[in-house]
Protein backbone atom coordinates (compact mmCIF):
# COMPACT_ATOMS: atom_id res chain seq x y z
CA UNK A 1 0.00 0.00 0.00
CA UNK A 2 1.43 3.39 -0.97
CA UNK A 3 2.01 5.96 1.71
CA UNK A 4 -0.33 8.51 0.12
CA UNK A 5 -3.43 6.26 0.28
CA UNK A 6 -4.03 5.60 3.93
CA UNK A 7 -5.86 8.63 5.19
CA UNK A 8 -6.87 10.92 2.34
CA UNK A 9 -10.17 9.35 1.36
CA UNK A 10 -13.85 10.07 1.15
CA UNK A 11 -16.17 8.08 3.43
CA UNK A 12 -16.90 5.71 0.54
CA UNK A 13 -13.22 4.84 0.23
CA UNK A 14 -12.37 6.78 -2.95
CA UNK A 15 -9.08 8.70 -2.79
CA UNK A 16 -9.35 12.41 -3.46
CA UNK A 17 -7.06 15.28 -2.58
CA UNK A 18 -8.18 18.77 -1.70
CA UNK A 19 -7.47 20.16 -5.18
CA UNK A 20 -9.71 17.46 -6.64
CA UNK A 21 -12.42 18.25 -4.12
CA UNK A 22 -12.60 21.78 -5.46
CA UNK A 23 -13.13 20.41 -8.96
CA UNK A 24 -15.55 17.58 -8.36
CA UNK A 25 -18.38 16.45 -6.18
CA UNK A 26 -18.10 12.96 -4.63
CA UNK A 27 -20.36 11.67 -7.40
CA UNK A 28 -18.02 13.03 -10.09
CA UNK A 29 -20.01 16.03 -11.35
CA UNK A 30 -18.19 19.30 -11.94
CA UNK A 31 -19.01 22.24 -9.71
CA UNK A 32 -17.85 25.82 -9.54
CA UNK A 33 -16.09 26.55 -6.23
CA UNK A 34 -17.39 30.12 -6.07
CA UNK A 35 -20.99 28.92 -6.33
CA UNK A 36 -20.22 26.32 -3.68
CA UNK A 37 -19.01 28.97 -1.25
CA UNK A 38 -22.10 31.08 -1.90
CA UNK A 39 -24.37 28.11 -1.35
CA UNK A 40 -22.41 27.28 1.79
CA UNK A 41 -23.02 30.73 3.22
CA UNK A 42 -26.74 30.53 2.44
CA UNK A 43 -26.98 27.10 4.00
CA UNK A 44 -25.14 28.24 7.10
CA UNK A 45 -27.60 31.09 7.58
CA UNK A 46 -30.62 28.84 6.98
CA UNK A 47 -29.39 26.21 9.41
CA UNK A 48 -28.29 28.68 12.04
CA UNK A 49 -24.62 27.71 11.79
CA UNK A 50 -21.81 30.14 12.37
CA UNK A 51 -19.49 29.83 9.40
CA UNK A 52 -16.31 30.51 11.40
CA UNK A 53 -17.27 28.41 14.41
CA UNK A 54 -14.44 26.29 15.77
CA UNK A 55 -14.58 22.55 15.30
CA UNK A 56 -13.99 21.38 18.84
CA UNK A 57 -13.11 17.86 17.69
CA UNK A 58 -10.02 19.15 15.90
CA UNK A 59 -9.37 21.93 18.42
CA UNK A 60 -9.96 22.17 22.16
CA UNK A 61 -8.85 19.88 24.98
CA UNK A 62 -9.08 16.27 23.80
CA UNK A 63 -10.43 14.57 26.93
CA UNK A 64 -13.08 17.24 27.49
CA UNK A 65 -14.30 17.13 23.89
CA UNK A 66 -14.38 13.34 23.93
CA UNK A 67 -16.59 13.39 27.02
CA UNK A 68 -18.88 16.02 25.49
CA UNK A 69 -19.24 13.86 22.39
CA UNK A 70 -19.46 10.60 24.33
CA UNK A 71 -22.14 11.34 26.92
CA UNK A 72 -25.07 12.12 24.57
CA UNK A 73 -24.40 8.82 22.77
CA UNK A 74 -24.18 6.98 26.08
CA UNK A 75 -27.37 8.57 27.41
CA UNK A 76 -29.24 7.52 24.30
CA UNK A 77 -27.93 3.98 24.71
CA UNK A 78 -28.85 3.98 28.41
CA UNK A 79 -32.45 4.87 27.65
CA UNK A 80 -32.52 2.22 24.95
CA UNK A 81 -31.29 -0.31 27.50
CA UNK A 82 -33.87 0.88 30.04
CA UNK A 83 -36.45 0.43 27.31
CA UNK A 84 -35.38 -3.22 27.01
CA UNK A 85 -34.72 -3.85 30.70
CA UNK A 86 -38.20 -2.65 31.70
CA UNK A 87 -39.62 -5.60 29.76
CA UNK A 88 -37.30 -8.03 31.55
CA UNK A 89 -37.91 -6.72 35.06
CA UNK A 90 -41.70 -6.44 34.78
CA UNK A 91 -42.05 -9.73 32.91
CA UNK A 92 -39.75 -11.56 35.33
CA UNK A 93 -41.51 -10.22 38.43
CA UNK A 94 -45.10 -10.37 37.14
CA UNK A 95 -45.13 -13.30 34.71
CA UNK A 96 -42.38 -15.61 35.96
CA UNK A 97 -39.09 -17.02 34.76
CA UNK A 98 -40.60 -18.78 31.73
CA UNK A 99 -41.90 -15.49 30.31
CA UNK A 100 -38.59 -13.79 31.16
CA UNK A 101 -36.70 -16.49 29.29
CA UNK A 102 -39.05 -16.09 26.31
CA UNK A 103 -38.44 -12.32 26.16
CA UNK A 104 -34.67 -12.34 26.71
CA UNK A 105 -33.42 -15.71 25.49
CA UNK A 106 -33.47 -16.97 21.91
CA UNK A 107 -35.80 -14.19 20.76
CA UNK A 108 -33.37 -11.45 21.79
CA UNK A 109 -30.49 -13.15 19.96
CA UNK A 110 -32.49 -13.49 16.73
CA UNK A 111 -33.88 -9.95 16.85
CA UNK A 112 -30.42 -8.50 17.53
CA UNK A 113 -29.08 -10.08 14.34
CA UNK A 114 -31.69 -8.39 12.15
CA UNK A 115 -31.63 -5.02 13.93
CA UNK A 116 -27.83 -5.02 14.21
CA UNK A 117 -27.37 -5.55 10.49
CA UNK A 118 -29.73 -2.71 9.61
CA UNK A 119 -28.08 -0.42 12.16
CA UNK A 120 -24.84 -0.98 10.24
CA UNK A 121 -26.58 -0.06 6.98
CA UNK A 122 -27.99 3.06 8.67
CA UNK A 123 -24.48 4.05 9.75
CA UNK A 124 -23.56 4.16 6.05
CA UNK A 125 -26.45 6.54 5.43
CA UNK A 126 -25.32 8.66 8.37
CA UNK A 127 -21.78 8.99 7.00
CA UNK A 128 -22.95 9.95 3.51
CA UNK A 129 -25.48 12.45 4.85
CA UNK A 130 -22.90 14.02 7.15
CA UNK A 131 -20.43 14.34 4.28
CA UNK A 132 -22.88 16.15 2.00
CA UNK A 133 -24.30 18.22 4.88
CA UNK A 134 -20.82 19.35 5.93
CA UNK A 135 -20.12 20.35 2.31
CA UNK A 136 -23.40 22.29 2.11
CA UNK A 137 -24.52 20.18 -0.87
CA UNK A 138 -28.22 20.51 -0.11
CA UNK A 139 -29.52 18.63 -3.15
CA UNK A 140 -27.29 15.65 -2.33
CA UNK A 141 -28.42 15.73 1.30
CA UNK A 142 -32.05 15.57 0.22
CA UNK A 143 -31.34 12.71 -2.20
CA UNK A 144 -29.49 10.80 0.51
CA UNK A 145 -32.28 11.29 3.03
CA UNK A 146 -34.99 10.01 0.71
CA UNK A 147 -32.86 7.14 -0.64
CA UNK A 148 -32.04 6.13 2.94
CA UNK A 149 -35.68 6.05 3.99
CA UNK A 150 -36.49 4.00 0.90
CA UNK A 151 -33.86 1.52 2.10
CA UNK A 152 -35.42 1.45 5.57
CA UNK A 153 -38.94 0.81 4.26
CA UNK A 154 -37.83 -1.97 1.91
CA UNK A 155 -35.69 -3.60 4.60
CA UNK A 156 -38.54 -3.26 7.11
CA UNK A 157 -40.99 -5.11 4.86
CA UNK A 158 -38.47 -7.86 4.02
CA UNK A 159 -37.37 -8.32 7.64
CA UNK A 160 -40.99 -8.41 8.84
CA UNK A 161 -41.93 -11.11 6.33
CA UNK A 162 -38.83 -13.20 7.08
CA UNK A 163 -39.21 -12.81 10.84
CA UNK A 164 -42.86 -13.80 10.94
CA UNK A 165 -42.52 -16.70 8.49
CA UNK A 166 -39.21 -18.10 9.75
CA UNK A 167 -39.66 -17.56 13.50
CA UNK A 168 -40.45 -21.24 14.28
CA UNK A 169 -37.45 -22.48 12.29
CA UNK A 170 -35.07 -19.98 13.94
CA UNK A 171 -36.29 -20.87 17.43
CA UNK A 172 -35.83 -24.59 16.68
CA UNK A 173 -32.30 -23.96 15.42
CA UNK A 174 -31.48 -22.31 18.74
CA UNK A 175 -32.86 -25.33 20.61
CA UNK A 176 -35.49 -23.30 22.45
CA UNK A 177 -37.00 -25.51 25.20
CA UNK A 178 -40.55 -26.70 24.52
CA UNK A 179 -41.97 -25.00 27.61
CA UNK A 180 -40.73 -21.63 26.25
CA UNK A 181 -41.50 -22.15 22.57
CA UNK A 182 -45.08 -20.81 22.40
CA UNK A 183 -44.35 -17.59 24.31
CA UNK A 184 -41.11 -17.02 22.37
CA UNK A 185 -42.91 -17.49 19.06
CA UNK A 186 -45.67 -15.03 20.00
CA UNK A 187 -43.12 -12.43 21.13
CA UNK A 188 -41.07 -12.72 17.93
CA UNK A 189 -44.00 -12.51 15.53
CA UNK A 190 -45.50 -9.45 17.22
CA UNK A 191 -42.09 -7.76 17.34
CA UNK A 192 -41.28 -8.46 13.67
CA UNK A 193 -44.70 -7.21 12.56
CA UNK A 194 -43.61 -3.70 13.60
CA UNK A 195 -40.09 -3.93 12.11
CA UNK A 196 -40.78 -1.25 9.43
CA UNK A 197 -41.51 1.29 12.19
CA UNK A 198 -38.41 0.32 14.16
CA UNK A 199 -36.09 0.58 11.14
CA UNK A 200 -37.71 3.87 10.14
CA UNK A 201 -36.81 5.28 13.57
CA UNK A 202 -33.24 3.96 13.41
CA UNK A 203 -32.68 5.60 10.03
CA UNK A 204 -34.34 8.87 11.08
CA UNK A 205 -32.27 9.14 14.24
CA UNK A 206 -29.10 8.58 12.19
CA UNK A 207 -30.08 11.32 9.73
CA UNK A 208 -30.67 13.80 12.56
CA UNK A 209 -27.30 12.99 14.15
CA UNK A 210 -25.58 13.40 10.78
CA UNK A 211 -27.00 16.92 10.63
CA UNK A 212 -25.57 17.65 14.08
CA UNK A 213 -28.82 17.14 16.02
CA UNK A 214 -28.15 14.56 18.74
CA UNK A 215 -30.74 15.94 21.15
CA UNK A 216 -34.00 15.02 19.47
CA UNK A 217 -33.12 11.32 19.02
CA UNK A 218 -32.35 11.29 22.75
CA UNK A 219 -35.70 12.95 23.52
CA UNK A 220 -37.51 10.31 21.43
CA UNK A 221 -35.82 7.53 23.40
CA UNK A 222 -36.71 9.17 26.72
CA UNK A 223 -40.37 9.47 25.72
CA UNK A 224 -40.45 5.86 24.51
CA UNK A 225 -38.79 4.58 27.67
CA UNK A 226 -41.21 6.44 29.92
CA UNK A 227 -44.19 5.20 27.90
CA UNK A 228 -42.92 1.62 27.86
CA UNK A 229 -43.11 1.16 31.64
CA UNK A 230 -46.87 1.81 32.14
CA UNK A 231 -47.63 -0.12 28.95
CA UNK A 232 -45.69 -3.10 30.32
CA UNK A 233 -47.63 -2.94 33.56
CA UNK A 234 -50.91 -2.71 31.62
CA UNK A 235 -50.34 -5.65 29.27
CA UNK A 236 -48.14 -7.89 31.45
CA UNK A 237 -49.31 -7.28 35.01
CA UNK A 238 -52.82 -5.95 34.37
CA UNK A 239 -54.03 -8.04 31.43
CA UNK A 240 -51.80 -11.03 32.29
CA UNK A 241 -50.56 -11.40 28.72
CA UNK A 242 -47.01 -12.49 29.63
CA UNK A 243 -44.37 -12.30 26.88
CA UNK A 244 -47.04 -11.38 24.31
CA UNK A 245 -47.98 -8.33 26.41
CA UNK A 246 -44.32 -7.24 26.61
CA UNK A 247 -44.08 -7.49 22.82
CA UNK A 248 -47.20 -5.35 22.32
CA UNK A 249 -45.87 -2.69 24.70
CA UNK A 250 -42.50 -2.62 22.92
CA UNK A 251 -44.10 -2.41 19.48
CA UNK A 252 -46.37 0.48 20.48
CA UNK A 253 -43.34 2.43 21.73
CA UNK A 254 -41.44 1.75 18.51
CA UNK A 255 -44.35 3.03 16.45
CA UNK A 256 -44.47 6.11 18.68
CA UNK A 257 -40.76 6.76 18.04
CA UNK A 258 -41.21 6.34 14.28
CA UNK A 259 -44.09 8.81 14.26
CA UNK A 260 -42.04 11.37 16.21
CA UNK A 261 -39.14 11.03 13.75
CA UNK A 262 -41.45 11.40 10.77
CA UNK A 263 -43.19 14.49 12.18
CA UNK A 264 -39.90 16.19 13.05
CA UNK A 265 -38.25 15.50 9.69
CA UNK A 266 -41.40 16.33 7.72
CA UNK A 267 -41.70 19.72 9.43
CA UNK A 268 -37.97 20.45 9.14
CA UNK A 269 -37.10 23.48 7.02
CA UNK A 270 -33.48 22.50 6.41
CA UNK A 271 -32.18 20.45 3.48
CA UNK A 272 -32.68 17.15 5.32
CA UNK A 273 -36.46 17.57 5.36
CA UNK A 274 -38.38 14.36 4.63
CA UNK A 275 -40.98 14.79 1.88
CA UNK A 276 -43.23 11.68 1.65
CA UNK A 277 -43.83 12.11 -2.09
CA UNK A 278 -40.07 11.88 -2.74
CA UNK A 279 -39.45 8.78 -0.62
CA UNK A 280 -39.81 6.53 -3.67
CA UNK A 281 -37.23 8.44 -5.72
CA UNK A 282 -34.04 6.44 -5.16
CA UNK A 283 -30.61 7.62 -6.34
CA UNK A 284 -28.60 4.66 -7.61
CA UNK A 285 -25.24 6.33 -6.97
CA UNK A 286 -26.11 7.26 -3.40
CA UNK A 287 -27.63 3.82 -2.79
CA UNK A 288 -24.33 2.18 -3.79
CA UNK A 289 -22.35 4.57 -1.62
CA UNK A 290 -24.52 3.98 1.45
CA UNK A 291 -24.31 0.21 1.04
CA UNK A 292 -20.55 0.29 0.41
CA UNK A 293 -20.00 1.95 3.78
CA UNK A 294 -22.85 0.32 5.68
CA UNK A 295 -22.57 -3.34 4.72
CA UNK A 296 -19.17 -3.98 6.42
CA UNK A 297 -20.51 -2.40 9.61
CA UNK A 298 -23.67 -4.48 9.31
CA UNK A 299 -21.70 -7.68 8.74
CA UNK A 300 -19.58 -7.06 11.81
CA UNK A 301 -22.72 -6.58 13.88
CA UNK A 302 -24.17 -9.79 12.42
CA UNK A 303 -21.06 -11.78 13.38
CA UNK A 304 -21.58 -10.80 16.98
CA UNK A 305 -25.26 -11.66 16.75
CA UNK A 306 -24.64 -15.03 15.11
CA UNK A 307 -21.99 -16.03 17.62
CA UNK A 308 -24.24 -14.95 20.49
CA UNK A 309 -27.07 -17.01 18.99
CA UNK A 310 -24.84 -20.08 19.05
CA UNK A 311 -23.98 -19.31 22.67
CA UNK A 312 -27.70 -18.90 23.45
CA UNK A 313 -28.42 -22.30 21.91
CA UNK A 314 -25.81 -23.87 24.21
CA UNK A 315 -27.18 -21.99 27.22
CA UNK A 316 -30.65 -23.30 26.36
CA UNK A 317 -29.34 -26.86 26.77
CA UNK A 318 -28.67 -26.17 30.48
CA UNK A 319 -32.33 -25.60 31.37
CA UNK A 320 -34.75 -22.80 32.21
CA UNK A 321 -32.92 -21.57 35.33
CA UNK A 322 -29.72 -20.96 33.40
CA UNK A 323 -31.67 -19.34 30.56
CA UNK A 324 -33.39 -16.94 32.97
CA UNK A 325 -30.10 -16.12 34.72
CA UNK A 326 -28.35 -15.52 31.38
CA UNK A 327 -31.22 -13.32 30.18
CA UNK A 328 -30.92 -11.13 33.28
CA UNK A 329 -27.12 -11.07 32.98
CA UNK A 330 -27.25 -9.83 29.40
CA UNK A 331 -29.44 -6.91 30.52
CA UNK A 332 -26.89 -5.86 33.15
CA UNK A 333 -24.00 -6.54 30.79
CA UNK A 334 -25.61 -4.12 28.34
CA UNK A 335 -24.38 -1.13 30.37
CA UNK A 336 -20.78 -2.20 29.74
CA UNK A 337 -21.36 -2.67 26.02
CA UNK A 338 -23.11 0.69 25.73
CA UNK A 339 -20.15 2.44 27.37
CA UNK A 340 -17.49 0.74 25.25
CA UNK A 341 -19.46 1.10 22.00
CA UNK A 342 -20.11 4.82 22.61
CA UNK A 343 -16.38 5.36 23.12
CA UNK A 344 -15.69 3.38 19.95
CA UNK A 345 -17.90 5.80 18.01
CA UNK A 346 -16.08 8.71 19.66
CA UNK A 347 -12.60 7.47 18.72
CA UNK A 348 -13.66 6.85 15.11
CA UNK A 349 -14.95 10.41 14.83
CA UNK A 350 -11.96 12.02 16.52
CA UNK A 351 -9.35 10.05 14.58
CA UNK A 352 -11.14 10.52 11.26
CA UNK A 353 -11.67 14.26 11.57
CA UNK A 354 -8.20 15.00 12.90
CA UNK A 355 -6.47 12.99 10.18
CA UNK A 356 -8.67 14.74 7.63
CA UNK A 357 -7.50 18.06 9.10
CA UNK A 358 -3.85 16.96 8.89
CA UNK A 359 -3.54 16.77 12.69
CA UNK A 360 -2.19 13.24 12.87
CA UNK A 361 -0.44 13.65 16.23
CA UNK A 362 -3.73 14.81 17.72
CA UNK A 363 -5.39 11.79 16.14
CA UNK A 364 -2.85 9.51 17.81
CA UNK A 365 -3.36 11.24 21.17
CA UNK A 366 -7.13 10.90 20.76
CA UNK A 367 -6.74 7.14 20.40
CA UNK A 368 -4.64 6.87 23.58
CA UNK A 369 -6.96 9.18 25.54
CA UNK A 370 -9.99 7.12 24.47
CA UNK A 371 -8.18 3.90 25.36
CA UNK A 372 -7.26 5.16 28.83
CA UNK A 373 -10.69 6.61 29.59
CA UNK A 374 -12.47 3.45 28.42
CA UNK A 375 -10.16 1.26 30.52
CA UNK A 376 -11.02 3.31 33.60
CA UNK A 377 -14.76 3.16 32.86
CA UNK A 378 -14.64 -0.59 32.22
CA UNK A 379 -12.69 -1.14 35.43
CA UNK A 380 -15.19 0.84 37.49
CA UNK A 381 -18.12 -1.05 35.97
CA UNK A 382 -16.40 -4.39 36.64
CA UNK A 383 -15.91 -3.59 40.32
CA UNK A 384 -19.44 -2.20 40.61
CA UNK A 385 -21.08 -5.25 39.02
CA UNK A 386 -18.92 -7.70 40.96
CA UNK A 387 -19.67 -6.06 44.31
CA UNK A 388 -23.45 -5.73 43.97
CA UNK A 389 -24.29 -8.66 41.71
CA UNK A 390 -26.81 -10.32 44.05
CA UNK A 391 -28.75 -7.09 44.55
CA UNK A 392 -28.93 -6.48 40.81
CA UNK A 393 -30.26 -9.96 40.02
CA UNK A 394 -32.90 -9.72 42.75
CA UNK A 395 -34.52 -6.92 40.72
CA UNK A 396 -35.24 -9.40 37.93
CA UNK A 397 -36.40 -12.53 39.73
CA UNK A 398 -37.19 -13.86 43.20
CA UNK A 399 -36.04 -17.42 42.50
CA UNK A 400 -32.86 -17.88 44.60
CA UNK A 401 -31.50 -20.58 42.31
CA UNK A 402 -31.69 -18.24 39.31
CA UNK A 403 -30.10 -15.41 41.32
CA UNK A 404 -27.19 -17.66 42.37
CA UNK A 405 -26.57 -18.76 38.78
CA UNK A 406 -26.70 -15.15 37.55
CA UNK A 407 -24.23 -13.97 40.19
CA UNK A 408 -21.85 -16.77 39.17
CA UNK A 409 -22.09 -15.77 35.51
CA UNK A 410 -21.52 -12.09 36.25
CA UNK A 411 -18.55 -12.75 38.54
CA UNK A 412 -16.94 -14.95 35.89
CA UNK A 413 -17.18 -12.56 32.93
CA UNK A 414 -16.57 -9.15 34.55
CA UNK A 415 -12.95 -10.21 35.20
CA UNK A 416 -12.28 -10.01 31.45
CA UNK A 417 -13.99 -6.73 30.58
CA UNK A 418 -10.75 -4.76 30.15
CA UNK A 419 -9.57 -7.03 27.34
CA UNK A 420 -12.39 -6.12 24.97
CA UNK A 421 -11.63 -2.41 25.35
CA UNK A 422 -8.54 -2.95 23.19
CA UNK A 423 -10.68 -4.52 20.44
CA UNK A 424 -13.25 -1.71 20.39
CA UNK A 425 -10.83 1.22 20.50
CA UNK A 426 -8.33 -0.13 17.94
CA UNK A 427 -11.16 -1.18 15.64
CA UNK A 428 -12.68 2.30 15.90
CA UNK A 429 -9.28 3.91 15.29
CA UNK A 430 -8.68 1.87 12.14
CA UNK A 431 -12.14 2.76 10.82
CA UNK A 432 -11.35 6.41 11.44
CA UNK A 433 -8.36 5.89 9.13
CA UNK A 434 -10.77 4.60 6.45
CA UNK A 435 -9.51 1.04 7.01
CA UNK A 436 -12.76 -0.96 6.96
CA UNK A 437 -12.18 -4.36 5.38
CA UNK A 438 -9.52 -5.86 7.67
CA UNK A 439 -11.32 -4.99 10.96
CA UNK A 440 -14.43 -6.68 9.56
CA UNK A 441 -12.44 -9.79 8.61
CA UNK A 442 -10.83 -9.95 12.05
CA UNK A 443 -14.23 -9.67 13.70
CA UNK A 444 -15.76 -12.38 11.53
CA UNK A 445 -12.90 -14.85 12.03
CA UNK A 446 -12.02 -14.22 15.66
CA UNK A 447 -15.40 -13.30 17.11
CA UNK A 448 -17.81 -15.48 15.15
CA UNK A 449 -15.85 -18.42 13.72
CA UNK A 450 -13.54 -18.93 16.70
CA UNK A 451 -16.39 -18.63 19.21
CA UNK A 452 -18.50 -21.19 17.35
CA UNK A 453 -15.48 -23.49 17.07
CA UNK A 454 -14.80 -23.17 20.79
CA UNK A 455 -18.28 -24.19 21.92
CA UNK A 456 -18.34 -26.92 19.30
CA UNK A 457 -15.10 -28.51 20.50
CA UNK A 458 -14.62 -27.56 24.15
CA UNK A 459 -18.07 -28.70 25.29
CA UNK A 460 -17.22 -32.23 24.17
CA UNK A 461 -14.58 -32.37 26.88
CA UNK A 462 -16.28 -30.29 29.58
CA UNK A 463 -20.02 -29.78 29.11
CA UNK A 464 -20.58 -26.98 31.66
CA UNK A 465 -21.91 -23.45 31.68
CA UNK A 466 -18.41 -22.20 32.57
CA UNK A 467 -17.06 -23.69 29.34
CA UNK A 468 -19.73 -21.84 27.35
CA UNK A 469 -18.91 -18.54 29.08
CA UNK A 470 -15.18 -19.05 28.49
CA UNK A 471 -15.83 -18.59 24.77
CA UNK A 472 -16.05 -14.83 25.38
CA UNK A 473 -12.62 -14.17 26.95
CA UNK A 474 -11.00 -16.63 24.52
CA UNK A 475 -12.30 -14.72 21.49
CA UNK A 476 -11.68 -11.31 23.08
CA UNK A 477 -8.03 -12.17 23.72
CA UNK A 478 -7.54 -13.51 20.18
CA UNK A 479 -9.22 -10.47 18.60
CA UNK A 480 -7.30 -8.02 20.82
CA UNK A 481 -3.96 -9.57 19.82
CA UNK A 482 -4.96 -9.50 16.14
CA UNK A 483 -5.95 -5.84 16.28
CA UNK A 484 -2.76 -4.86 18.11
CA UNK A 485 -0.60 -6.66 15.53
CA UNK A 486 -2.51 -5.23 12.57
CA UNK A 487 -2.57 -1.72 14.01
CA UNK A 488 1.22 -1.75 14.49
CA UNK A 489 1.71 -3.18 10.97
CA UNK A 490 -0.64 -0.61 9.45
CA UNK A 491 1.02 2.34 11.16
CA UNK A 492 4.53 1.20 10.22
CA UNK A 493 3.53 0.66 6.60
CA UNK A 494 1.37 3.75 6.07
CA UNK A 495 2.63 6.15 8.72
CA UNK A 496 0.55 8.49 10.79
CA UNK A 497 1.57 11.89 9.50
CA UNK A 498 0.13 14.49 7.10
CA UNK A 499 -0.03 13.51 3.44
CA UNK A 500 1.46 15.65 0.68
CA UNK A 501 -1.95 16.28 -0.78
CA UNK A 502 -3.18 17.58 2.56
CA UNK A 503 -0.70 20.44 2.51
CA UNK A 504 -2.06 21.95 -0.69
CA UNK A 505 -3.93 25.26 -0.39
Largest sheet: none
Low confidence ranges: 1-53, 497-505
Tally of separate helices: 18
Beta-strand residue percentage: under 5%
Q: Give average pLDDT, whole number.
A: 79
The total strand number stands at: 0
Helix percentage range: over 70%
User: How do the helices and strands follow one another from N- to C-terminus?
Assistant: HHHHHHHHHHHHHHHHHH
Question: If you had to describe this structure to a student in words, what would you say it looks like?
Answer:
The protein has 505 residues and is mainly α. It is built from 18 helices and no strands. The chain has helices spanning 18-23, 33-46, 62-95, 97-104, 106-134, 138-173, 178-193, 195-210, 215-238, 242-267, 284-316, 320-356, 360-387, 389-394, 400-414, 417-432, 437-461, 465-494. Helix 11 packs parallel to helix 17 (437-461). The radius of gyration is 23 Å and the shape is globular.
Short description:
With 505 residues, this protein is mainly α. The protein has helices at residues 18-23, 33-46, 62-95, 97-104, 106-134, 138-173, 178-193, 195-210, 215-238, 242-267, 284-316, 320-356, 360-387, 389-394, 400-414, 417-432, 437-461, 465-494.
Amino acid sequence: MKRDRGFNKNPDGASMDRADQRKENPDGSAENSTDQRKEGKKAAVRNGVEENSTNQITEGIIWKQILLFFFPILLGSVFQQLYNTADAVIVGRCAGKEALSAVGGSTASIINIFVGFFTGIASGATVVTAHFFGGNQEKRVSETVHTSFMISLCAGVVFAALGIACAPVMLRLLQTPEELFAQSLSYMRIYFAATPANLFYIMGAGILRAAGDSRRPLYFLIVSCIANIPLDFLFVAGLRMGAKGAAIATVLCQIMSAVMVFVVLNRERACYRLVPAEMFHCSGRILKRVLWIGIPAGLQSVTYGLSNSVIQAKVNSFGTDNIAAWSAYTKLDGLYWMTVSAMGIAVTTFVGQNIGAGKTERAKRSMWVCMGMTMVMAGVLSIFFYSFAEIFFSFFVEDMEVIALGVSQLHFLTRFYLIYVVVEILSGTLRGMECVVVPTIISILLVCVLRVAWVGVALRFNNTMETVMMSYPVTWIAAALAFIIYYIFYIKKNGLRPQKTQSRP
